[in-house]
Design goal:
The protein is α/β, with parallel strands linked by helices. Among the domains are: 9-41, no CATH class; 462-526, no CATH class. It is built from 14 helices and 36 strands. Strands 7, 8, 9, 10, 11, 12, 13, 14, 15, 16, 17 and 18 form a twelve-stranded mixed beta sheet that branches. It is globular and about 80 Å long. The two termini are 32 Å apart.
């Protein structure tokens, strides 16, 4: 992991899992002292792996509610030991997490006891809040008419997309904000009618392009600012632009050739050292309105963070994944926290403060080692105590954890409620089955599909479903066949279908239909992103030292901030 030259190395350590050497700096020490925890025993990569392994972001499984027998979709597999309830039941008053309370046993390790509590407390199948017609999604908030999306907020008419905010009519896109009518886009902001674009902002009707700012009507372009009617970075007439676009849309072969060309354009494009906007004294990538954030990624409106990924409105936090609005402060080693203060070594906690080693707890305070509590306080292992007794017992448990070497460590992989391959860790830090098992994690294996793919492998070209081109009768017949057909993904072998809303969007925008499973489309798109890791290298123009997510062996030309601004403007 990159270490800033402004920091002094205080300690060199070896990861207890991999033997990899890593360093602890004076700035790290200040954070650890603030939280009263020891320096880590895992290298940064293994720390991130453990945090990410506690979040299933994209996978849904059919199963039954453990209490009602109702068929539901869940982020937990059907064979889980712990009960899983449907969303409405879990949030009702028909059950209480306090029913599972127990005394702490000082003769046993803490994590062992936590796992036994975890095995019996019910969990909610999916996290869908304040949304309409969004049952087939994972982690969806304040949205409407979304299908097979994950990590979406304030979205409408969104399909097969990941990690997007305030958007409408979005298909097969990831990491987008304030966009409308886009397809196959990645890291785009305030874009409309864009297809296969990456790192574009304030653009309209652009295709197969990279790093555009305030552009319109561009095809196969990169690094342009405030341009209109450009192809391969050269100006063209409106008529030439429209003719070229119509030609690309006429056959699948030409469309795929344009996609291939885009990949070459990306590699040849000059790159900034990082994707920063209004950032001060920070290192990382994809930061906006941040100050004093070191080794942070996909973060906005935050300050004084270290080793934090994906957050908004966070302050004074370290080693966290996904901290969100309105404000989260003084959190460490936590995965998914919304509006939390002083929440440590926990996962899936909302609107809470002052607790450690908890998960799926909401609107609570002063908890230690609790699971599935709502409006709880002064509780340990789901058992409530008078305040003074709570404080005394908590201190004793922390001392016990120090003696077992557990205090200050995030949960081991064995405690994750998900098999490793279902989690975000598999996307960012992939492992083989044996590697997972050697780390004490769980591997779920492939679940056989109940839907069989037909022998038909490919949809017809989009024109064959357009009544304006082939007539209403033939188009209607083709559409009926298409919507009934179960296709087989040539990459994964998994079955998938084209839904009517998807077909309508592709017809309206003359975009060829996809030929792979939605999950494979997401994987291919996210491969275009850099790793969430920093490397030290030199600017390829002025040789200044830069901290960047481009490793030394990457072929792209990477520039420091000053050189990149000269290049763009």
């Amino acid at each position: 992991m990159y270490t800033s030259s402004d920091e002094n190395i205080i300690e060199k350590k070896k990861c207890r899992l991999t033997g990899e050497e890593f360093v602890v700096t004076d700035a790290d020490i200040l954070f650890y002292k603030k939280f009263g925890i020891p320096t880590p025993t895992l290298c940064p990569r293994e720390l991130w792996r453990n945090l990410f392994a506690f979040r299933n972001e994209r996978n849904l499984f059919p199963r039954t509610c453990s209490k009602t027998g109702q068929n539901i979709l869940s982020c937990y597999r059907p064979d889980t030991i712990f009960p899983v309830y449907n969303h409405k039941l879990w949030w009702s008053d028909d059950w209480s997490g306090f029913d599972y309370g127990r005394d702490f046993d000082f003769s046993r390790p803490y994590f062992e006891q936590y796992k036994s509590l975890q095995d019996v407390v019910p969990r909610v199948g999916t996290t869908i809040f304040s949304s309409e017609n969004c049952d087939y999604n994972n982690q969806c908030r304040s949205s409407r008419n979304c299908y097979l999306c994950s990590l979406v907020s304030k979205a409408e008419d969104a399909y097969y997309s990941y990690w997007t905010n305030e958007w409408r009519n979005i298909f097969d896109s990831s990491m987008t904000n304030f966009c409308e009518n886009i397809y196959d886009c990645l890291d785009t902001t305030q874009c409309n009618l864009c297809v296969s674009c990456q790192e574009c902002r304030d653009c309209q009707e652009c295709y197969f392009s990279y790093q555009l700012r305030n552009c319109q009507n561009c095809i196969a372009c990169s690094g342009l600012v405030a341009k209109q009617y450009h192809i391969y970075n050269k100006p063209v007439t409106k008529e030439e632009y429209e003719k070229t676009l119509k030609l690309l849309q006429s056959t699948t072969e030409l469309w795929e050739k344009a996609q291939s060309t885009f990949r070459k354009i990306r590699v040849a494009s000059v790159r900034p050292w990082a994707q920063f906007s209004n950032v001060e004294n920070s290192t990382g990538d994809h930061l906006q309105f941040c100050r004093d954030c070191m080794n942070c990624f996909d973060t906005l409106s935050s300050e004084n963070l270290r080793h934090v990924v994906s957050c908004s409105g966070a302050k004074d936090c370290a080693w966290c994944y996904s901290l969100w609005f309105p404000v989260s402060e003084l959190c460490t080693h936590t995965c998914v926290a919304l509006d939390c203060n002083n929440v440590n070594f926990s996962f899936y906690v909302y609107s809470s403060k002052d607790f450690s080693y908890a998960d799926n707890c909401y609107n609570s305070s002063n908890l230690f080692g609790c699971i599935g509590l709502n409006h709880g306080k002064f509780s340990i292992m789901n058992k409530a105590y008078p305040q003074q007794e709570y404080e005394t017992l908590k201190t004793k448990i922390i001392d016990h954890m120090r003696s077992t070497g557990e205090w200050g460590q995030f949960f081991p992989l064995s405690v994750s409620p998900h098999p490793y391959e279902d989690t975000a860790a598999m996307d960012w830090y992939p492992l083989w089955e044996l590697e997972v098992l050697n780390r004490g994690g769980r591997w779920g294996g492939e679940i056989p599909s109940v839907t069989r793919a037909s022998s038909i492998e490919w949809p017809l070209h989009i024109i064959q479903y357009d009544e304006r081109v082939i007539g209403k009768e033939l188009a209607t017949s083709n559409i009926e066949t298409l919507l009934k057909t179960v296709f087989r993904c040539p990459v994964s072998g998994k079955p998938f279908q084209i839904i009517r809303q998807e077909l309508v969007f592709h017809l309206e925008n003359s975009i060829p239909l996809p030929t792979t499973h939605p999950r494979e489309r997401q994987r291919e798109l996210m491969k275009l992103r850099n790793p969430r890791e920093l490397f030290e290298r030199s600017c390829d123009e002025c040789a200044a030292k830069i901290a960047t997510s481009y490793a030394l062996d990457r072929p792209e030309k990477v520039l420091c901030e000053a050189c990149y601004m000269k290049h763009m403007y």
